[in-house]
Amino acid sequence: MTQEELHHYHSLQEILSHGRLTALFQPIISLHNQQIFGYEALIRGPSDGPLHSPLTLFDTALKHDCLAELDLLCRETAIKRYGQLGLKEKLFINTTPVAILNSDYPHGLTLQYVEEAGLSAEQVIIELTEQYPIDDYELMRTATEHYRDMGFSIAIDDLGAGYSGLRTWSELKPDFVKLDRHFMQNIHEDRQKRQFVQSMIDIAQSIGCQVIGEGIEVRQEYITAQSLDMRFVQGYYFGRPNRNPQKELDNSLFAQRKETTIQRTGRPRANTLVSSLLTDLDPVRHNDTIEHISDRFQKALKLNALPVVDDNNRVVGIMWRDDFMTLYASRFGRELYGRKPIKDFMDKNPIVVETELPLKKLSYQITSQEAHHQHSAFVITEQGRYRGVGSLMDLLRQITDMQITMARHANPLSGLPGNVPLSEHTREIIEQNRDVTVCYFDLDNFKPYNDIYGYGKGDKVISLTAKTLTEHVDQEIDFVGHVGGDDFIILFESKDWRQRCQKILEAFEALYPQLYNLRHLQQAGINAVDRHGNETFYSLLSLSIGAVRILDFPNIQAEIDLTEYASKAKSMAKRIAGNSLYQLEATEKNMINQKPKIRLVTEK
Question: How far from the centroid of its chain's Cα atoms is residue 563's Cα?
Fold first, then answer.
């Protein structure tokens, strides 16, 4: 042991013997209500000693097998001080899984400390740091469930910086995940970071978990976090760690206007489906012997798994390389198991997904999946038959690319996909001869409204229209795009598209009280100057919808053909006063289905 190591050891013993630790508290902010949601307890060693830094302190404790004892002292110090401060917000307490899993760790004392400090278990979040790797996930799940049973919540700290963040998230199913500060630093200048963070937020929301962005230091980072609909943040911009932390926030810290978020809606393109991740890999049969599997793994050293199928080419399991080597390399493993079939040893519950599954759904499935030996690969099928395999890294890369593409071509006002992704979707639909009805939406009397109420209210009309459209489509199969200005398009694959359009028109009419003053509502319109300089009365804003079912027109072979028909349908709809839907048909005679304030018209 060097002199420095000996000095560190004696300092550690003094800290443990006399409790010479200081607890600091940094606020965690709720962006939804712009208030302090809780505080993270941060521990410091004596300021006049070599172990003031928590990193050096914990590394020294690990080296001398005192980690559990130090971890417990940190908890006691933080909880006691928090009780003295009389704070009612949530308290986040850091702990390392290595300490919890220590066989000598005294369980039950945390609840005792909490009760002695006048706090409740529901007020405390146990925050797991991944400074050291987790080896026993089963034991870790048992430990965290023990805390949950007592009323504590669970958080994972520094997601993305530890040893196995995604797997820990999947295995432990925490209530909170804290994104490492690397992803928040300069996020306003890094599009890839924004898309990665957005993906993590989407996954978290789907499984009932909350994301906390750490390391917010400048206003632009905070505004970007807010625009991504991140619920909680933490960092020097809002407050530094302090023994006597602030209890109120300066309102000037918060943005006055929330940034537009990107609307994500519509049927995925081919490169956003599981089929885009497909890698060919010959499977093994369920009756193949262990010796045969050994040959396959030895011939492909980078192969980490082998799918197992039955005689009908249906997936029945997967054999992971690590599990196989543990079995086969054991003493007498080859002699004992060599001639036995793989079906007796395989993982019978692999992740199996169809080629047409959207990638986002796959990511949800992986993060909410029950424990598996690995999550680095999954099996891909088509109509129940084996097709190949996919990897987790390819999935994350593809999701990030999707988000980048969406952000690059989104309309800045509505957040909806613009002309580029709209054209791509349209071409794909025509090429695949899918049964889609194209609805072209146009706002009537929008210019005079802008002239009277100003561009601020005009922008509000566009935003509310976009929101109304996205709320009434099937997010899985329909696509909403913003052509520009006051023109929108929905590519409907929903069979009930007429009913959806009617609900859109009704919802749009319900917006009038937000858009007009009482006088204009009473007279059902406004007076404004037309393009010739004459004062003219204009009715209230309305939506005209021109609809074209692509399969009704065999001569639609390209996007330009469809545009011609859709424009004609929209023009016919605009001839009808008020909110209206006009379907252009090639085979039926004119039909008019009148409903109050909503007109459905078709033309031969």
Answer: 34
381 neighbors 362 (Cβ within 8 angstroms): no
Q: Which residues contact 560 (CB under 8 A, 6 or more apart)?
A: none
Are the CB atoms for 276 and 387 separated by under 8 Å?
no
Amino acid present at 39: Y
468 CB contacts (<8 Å, ≥6 apart)?
504, 507, 508, 511
- DSSP per residue, 271-295: GGBGGGG-B----EETT-BHHHHHH
Residues 158, 211: Cα–Cα separation, whole Å: 11
**For the segment 27-77, what is each residue's pLDDT rounded down to a tens digit?**
999 998 899 999 999 999 998 889 988 888 988 988 898 888 898 999 999
Q: How far is CA 510 from CA 454, 503, 513, in A?
A: 21, 11, 7
Distance in angstroms (rounded) separating the CA atoms of residues 85 and 245: 9
DSSP for 320-360, please give it: EHHHHHHHHTSTTHHHHHTTSBGGGTSBS---EEETTSBHH
- Is the confidence at residue 80, as pLDDT, over 50? yes
> What gap in Å lies between CA 262 and CA 410, rounded to an integer?
7
Residues 6+ apart with CB under 8 A from 243: 22, 23, 24, 25, 81
In a 3-state reduction of DSSP, which class is residue 570?
Answer: helix
Handedness of CA 516, 518, 520, 524 (dihedral sign): positive
Whose tokens are 């956003």? That residue is 272
Which H or E run contains 85? Answer: helix 67-85
Asked if pLDDT for residue 285 goes beyond 90, the answer is yes
d(CA 45, CA 51): 5
Tokens of 166: 């995604």
Higher pLDDT, 246 or 477: 246
Selection from 53-57, 208-212, 409-413, 513-517 with the highest mean pLDDT: 513-517
The three-state DSSP-derived secondary structure of 459-516 is HHHHHHHHHHHHHCCCCCCCEEEEEECCEEEEEECCCCHHHHHHHHHHHHHCCHHHHC
Single out the residue of 194, 261, 221, 230 nearest to residue 404, CA to CA. 194
Nearest one of 291, 343, 352 to 319, comparing CA atoms? 343
Whole-number Å distance between alpha carbons of 562 and 422: 13
Which residues pair with residue 23 across a beta bridge? 43
User: What is the enclosing helix (H) or strand (E) of 149?
Assistant: helix 137-149
Contacts of 56 (CB under 8 A, 6+ apart): 8, 45, 50
For the entire predicted model, the pTM comes to 0.46
